[in-house]
Each structure stands twice: as C-alpha cells, then as structure tokens.
User: What shape does this take?
Amino acid sequence: MKILTLNFLTCARKACKAEPAAFPLHPRDAELEIVEAELNTEFLRNVLPRVEWEALRVVTEELGLPSLPNVAPEPDAIFPAASTAAAATANETPANPAPTQLLQDLHHLLLETTILSGKLVCGNCGHEYAVKEGIANFLLPSHLV
Amino acid sequence: MPEYLMRLVQVHESFRKAELQALAELAGVDMEFVSYSEDSPFCIISLASPAAARALITRSILSQAIYELWGHGSSLPALHASVLATSPPHWPSCATTSFRFTLDSYRGSRSTASQTTLIESFSYLPFTGPIQMRNPTHSFRIFEDYALGEKEPRYLYLGRFIADSGRQAKTTYDLKKRSYISTTSMDAELALVTANLSLAGPGKLFYDPFMGTGGFPVAAAHFGAVTLGSDIDGRSIRGKEDGKNVLGNFKQYNLTDHYLDSFVSDLTNSPVRGCLGPSPLSAGNAPGGWLDGIICDPPYGVREGLKVLGIKEGRGEWRKEMHLDRWQDEGYIPPKRPYSFEAMLDDIMHFAAVTLVEGGRLGMWMPSANDQDIELDVPTHPFLEVVSVCVQPFNKWSRKLLTYRRLPSNSILTSTTPWIKRREDPGLVHANDLNSFRKKYFEGFREKEPEAMSSGPLAEDAAST
Assistant: This one.
C-alpha cells in the first residue's frame, strides 16, 4: 500500500468514522519497499491539494522516513513556475523544466514508498488491519459491523 | 463551422453519441450533431477545425475514423452536385499531392468493375498528383449506406481522411489475450467506453470499488488516469501464483505507473476517507471529495453473489459466538450475508456523492429486465446529475451504463427533501427476496401469472437455495 493511498483511508468501522482519532491509520511493524514509478507531475499537481498534510506528516514520522515540514508547501515551491497552470494555458508550450527536489521527494514518498506488509492500527478503537503482499484487508468481523 | 463525417461502428449504438459528447468535453472542443441515426454508422458533426476533429476522435472506441466532409447526397448525382457545391475551397490543397480513393459500403457490395466506375466518376476533381495506394498524402473515401437487402445505396458521402480513432485499444486489451480475468470481467470494448464516458484522463484519480480482476482500472489507466481498486474478495485481487493477478495485468500492458493500489473492503463498511458523511445529506455539509472518477460494475447477485459483511439473520447464536471466539485467528475470514441490490445502488450513489470532486463522474452498470420501464429505475441523488444512460440489450434482460456528474456544492438544491437511501426490509433474508432482478433472472423472466403470485413461501425458499 502506497503512502498516498494511506492518506485516503480511515478505520472501516462506522462507529469510528466521525472520530478524529481514527485518521490516519497508524502503520505498525511495517516492512517497506520502494517501487520505482515515473514522475507524474500532472497527477501530483491535481492530487496534492487533496492530501491531508498533517496526517501525512504523522505517518511519515511513524515510519521513520525523513520528516516533512509542519505545513504543506505552497504549490509554487513544488511545481516549477514555467509549468504552473497559467503557463500551461498559454499558447506556447514551454519546455518541461527540471522537476524541483521537493517534487521528486514527494513523488518518492507518496507514490514509490510502499507498505509491503505489517498492520494499520485505528487510533480510536485499536482495531488492526493486516497488510500482506502490499494489499491491505479492511474486512471487519461480524461483531464490528 | 465546417462539417465532418464520423465513421462509427454499428455496435453498442446507444453508447456512441454519449461517447462523442464525453470526448468533446474532454478535448474541450465545440461539437454539434448535424445528422445522426442509431441505424447508421455515418454521422455528420460540425467542428471548428481538423485539429478539433483529431482531438475528438483520438480516444474514441466506438468509431473508426473521421473525415472532412466533401459532399453527401441520397444518390450518386446528388453526391456529385454536393461535392461540386461545397468542396472547391479544399481543392488547391490536394492539387499536386499524392492521393487515393477507396470505397466503404455499409450493408452492400459492388463488383470490382462497378467500384472502378464509381471512383472514376470523381475524375472531374482537378488532382494532378500521383495515385498512390500506400501512404498517400490525401486519402479519399466514398461511403455508401444501403438499406438492408437493397441493391442501390440510400445515401452516399465523400470524405477526406483526417484521423483514425482509438479503437485499436479494443484489440490491445482483448480479454482473450489478458493474462488474468474472471467469469464476470467486462469486455475490453465496454470497459474502455465506460472510462471514456467518465472522462478518465491524465492527472486524474479513478477508483473501482468492485474491481474483481481489475478490468475497469486497467481501462482508466489506458487513458492516463491513476487508479485505485478494491473488492470484498481478496482472492480476486491477489489472484494466483505465477503473477496472474491484478498487478500482473497492469504489468502486461506496461501500465504499472498508473496502478496506485488495491485493497480488500466492503462498500457498506468502507475505509475510504469521507465516504460515510452525515446522512441524509444536505448541501450544507458537502465537503469536496478527492476522487475524479468512480467506475464500476457492481455484482448483480446472479453470476457474482451480492454480499456484504455481516451474519445472515437466523443462522443461530452459536455462529455469532464462534466468530467472536475466532476473529483474531490467522487466516480468519469474516462472514458475509446477502444484500439488496437497490440498497447497494444507493450505497454507491451516496459514496460517489461524498467522495467525488465537483464535476467528477460516476460510471455505474446495472441490469434490468426488459419489461421494466427503462428510465424509471435509474437511481437518483441530489448531488449527482445524470449525464447519459446507455443500454446494452440482451435477449431477456439488458444492462445499462449510467453516467453521473457530481454537481458543484453551490448548485445543489437545498430545498428538496433530504435524500434517504433505500434500505433493506429487515424481514427479508434470502437473496431472491432482496434482489428482484436475481429472482426474475432465475425465473427466466417469465410473465407474472396468477398462480405464480399465489405460490407459497415453500416455493420461494426452494428458488433461493
């Protein structure tokens, strides 16, 4: 499970949905793997505003990955000026400038870092969801449905 | 605006217009239908430029190619008159370049001699360049539309080729050549059309909550979207050894960069963030979602069981206790129970309403018996606007692709009564009682007869086992 996906998931229990402590899920005994992927600037520009930064920061820290700034960086700091939306709509298509280090780091963290196995723990109810072979299992036993 | 001839395919007719409209929106081009008929593979549209025509057709699955329209008419003399009237402004661009003429006869045929005569009847066109059948600069095509069984065409067109469609993807993604599929995999053609109608594209995030072997995510990834999927059955995601699994399919098509993740979950108890917003919904508490598109073919309860987490009622207390004792065991599989199809559809609608971004799309398949009214049972939601309803008919039943658009939060009508999802009747336990389509399917879609109405509970029990 990629770190980006983890940012979109909470505890599956209905009772936990309204509880702030249920998000993010906390990785435990996580075995990480790096799966290389091509940098997708367009996707990151679209999806980064939807990321809950504080939750991402917490998860990154818990996994012992390089720590993130306390507040989400401004889009201008991530995406080179020449390829911002304003320039993209202009008639000339500027040559793709080299991606910033920050963009490459976020790509590496969100889309290349994968939890291969381990557990995801709800901070509210303590329920543990297993991750095996990169696939998390969110099925609940009948008494928690 | 100049007119263009679209050579469509004569299958899945009710999907063709919806696909072109979706592609026009995606490409940001103005398109208007000048003439269109479900009964014909030829359709005239108006577009701003050949560049717009190229942008429009490049992803199309249900067309073959687009042509600049040089003339059309209900007979050969009428066609010539039309060509002479409208095409002269284009002539200088082809005066000295290589060219070729070919013929496309729909539901008709001509002998070679008759083809030559037809093509040579255009010899008044002032082209002095060489005739070249392979890779000419300009390729002209005469189109003939015959009524079934007729000897003479009912309509003719002449067009200059502009661009091919994206239909070769149908062959690339053919299920017969895919390493990992299941009995309920959607055929490649319709999966790709589903992704088109939902505007899958580069930079977007798409999700399929009933992914199975991943046919829809693969189709969305083909068009450049990054994809997420889940299924209640983890076995379908993990697949078999030797790499026959969902990820293996992405590898086969060299799309792994567009594979975000798969996970095991049930839509009625989903871990997806924001999916269980306050219910009933009102516009005031409609936060922006994070998915650009949701495309799915939910289980109808026929070939694929329609189940959600939980224990079927009336299975005895001992079962509940057994699960309480053993749920932490290694390899424990949570129990599942049958569920109502109507309730599931409404769950999907609600899920889409709260997880889609504004303008995001939901593409959802649903079955119906042919004797039910088509429009009546299209599920509705105040946050979602119907974009298109496309029908694929079978012999006694049909299935529809419903495409919805998530409305901007400020345009949602707050005055309407709050949306309340259709819930299950707690008294219903058997799959057949919960799912009228499943019942009809296994009854062979018989007309309701008086004696069938009075059949007792015993008969119903037998049918549901």
User: Anything to note?
Assistant: The CA atoms of residues 282 and 415 of chain B lie 9 Å apart. Chain B has two domains: 3-166, 170-440. Chain B touches chain A through 41 residues (CB under 8 Å). The first helix of chain B runs from residue 13 to 27.
